[in-house]
Amino acid sequence: MSQADACTPGTLGGQLRVSMNRVSRRLRAQRGEADLSEGQFAVLTAINRHGPMTPGVLAEHENIRPPSMTRTVNALVELGLVAKAGDATDKRLVVVELTDVGRNEIKVTKRRRDAWLTKKLGQLTPEERQTLADASELLTRIASQ
Prior knowledge:
Distance between the termini: 30 Å
Organism: Sanguibacter gelidistatuariae
GO molecular function, one term: DNA binding
Protein name: DNA-binding transcriptional regulator, MarR family
Keywords: DNA-binding, Transcription, Transcription regulation
Largest sheet: 2 strands, antiparallel
């Protein structure tokens, strides 16, 4: 394949999709102590980012069905990563909030993922890292369109 062919949007798109999926899988494999599924970890980070919320709001936020979110929340409660509390304004509602153990799990997982990526980036030349820095800006622009 010529260099010009490799840079057509269709060809480059396919190559980037495969590469980004592989890197993403490798990053997701770097987990904290609780060895959570990616869906469970996403719930923890959503609560961390947006604050306590009801399971229904959490299900909407994560784009999953409420019964699936209930199972996820219950598993996280059993692990001590989140706690259920009554809503301050409506006692019929349950609010899910992070525990200190849950916050620590997020920190450990992020630290392991950052360490893995830092190690891999350290194996590249400065020029290769600059290429990735440039690509990161472009990917961010693509993602925000």
